[in-house]
Amino acid sequence: GARMRDKMHAPADLPVWLRTDDLEFYTQEFERSGMIGPFSYYRSIQNSWEQLESHDGTQLRPPAMFIGGECDVTTGWGLEAIDRVGEFVPNYVGSHILSGCGHWIQQERPEEVNELVLGFMRELV
């Protein structure tokens, strides 16, 4: 089977949206605090499913929109759910999969993400 790391690659150069000093800051923070916080989300995911089980089939009524990156492995894992979200969210306005974009959509495509979010918000007022 494929592994998550098979979908990821180390770029030859940092992308324009990630500066060296930003990367150094993130590295220092993870070295200082470790990965307990980020990994705890994944450690507790089974508990999250169990806690939400009683809400199975409940429709979510607030307006919603999905924005994801085409190159984000989590978007790929969720494509079937993304296609069906309108069945469970009556006020779903749609999905936007940004081509060539990874997991950090706000950093990679700030103008495009801001435009989508602002357009979504304008429709609410």
TrEMBL record:
Record-linked Gene3D superfamilies: alpha/beta hydrolase (3.40.50.1820)
Keyword Hydrolase on entry: yes
Top-rank taxon: Bacteria
InterPro entries to which the protein is assigned, alphabetical: AB_hydrolase_fold (IPR029058), Epox_hydrolase-like (IPR000639)
Coiled coil: none
Keywords tagged on the record: Hydrolase
PANTHER family the record matches: EPOXIDE HYDROLASE
Protein name as it appears in the record: Alpha/beta hydrolase
